[in-house]
Amino acid sequence: MCNPHRRRLIARLATGGLLLTPLAAALSGCGTGDKWPEGMQAIVWDRDTCSRCNMTISDRRFAAQLRGGPKNMAFKFDDIGCLIFWLEEKREQFPWMADEATRMWVADFDSRSREQMIWHDPRKVRYVARSSPMGYNSAAIGTAAEAESMGYDEVRRQILARGR
């Protein structure tokens, strides 16, 4: 049989747990506020690493992601240049990357914060020169004027020509 002190301790813990349960439930809905596009895997800033260079993904202004294939695999990148080289280097290993169903995202350089990210399809956005983590120095900007920016094909060509 349980002694009275032990029984009281168990009762207190149980009551405390019951009182904390609604609080815990309410707080669990208060995440970081990150809103990810449908199908995109969350990036854990300062923890996730680039699939190509293994650098920690910290500078949100240049982050990118590729997702698709039969297993809906996700690859995260710290720079659009790493994504572009990954597509070139892994073409044979992951032929599904050429499928239209494969999705890609690149962060908008002008996103206000990690909690208010704007994501674009890298093939449909304009790029401007900005110093980037891996030195590919291209940033996606959804509101760039044509004269000062270039499209994905031009950025891709420049990055591949530069090498690394």
Question: What descriptors fit this protein?
Answer:
164 residues, alpha+beta, 4-stranded antiparallel sheet, two-stranded antiparallel sheet, 6 strands, 28% helix, elongated
Low-confidence stretches: 18-33
Tally of separate helices: 3
Quote the distance from N terminus to C terminus: 71 Å
Average of per-residue pLDDT values: 83
Helix proportion range = 25-40%
List the strand order in the largest sheet: 2-1-3-4
Write down how many β-strands occur, each being a DSSP E stretch of 2 or more residues.
6
DSSP strand (E) fraction? 15-25%
User: How is the biggest beta sheet arranged?
Assistant: 4 strands, antiparallel
Give a short synopsis of this structure.
With 164 residues, this protein is of the alpha+beta class. The chain has helices at 4-28, 80-89, 152-162; strands spanning 64-68, 73-77, 103-107, 119-120, 126-129, 138-141.
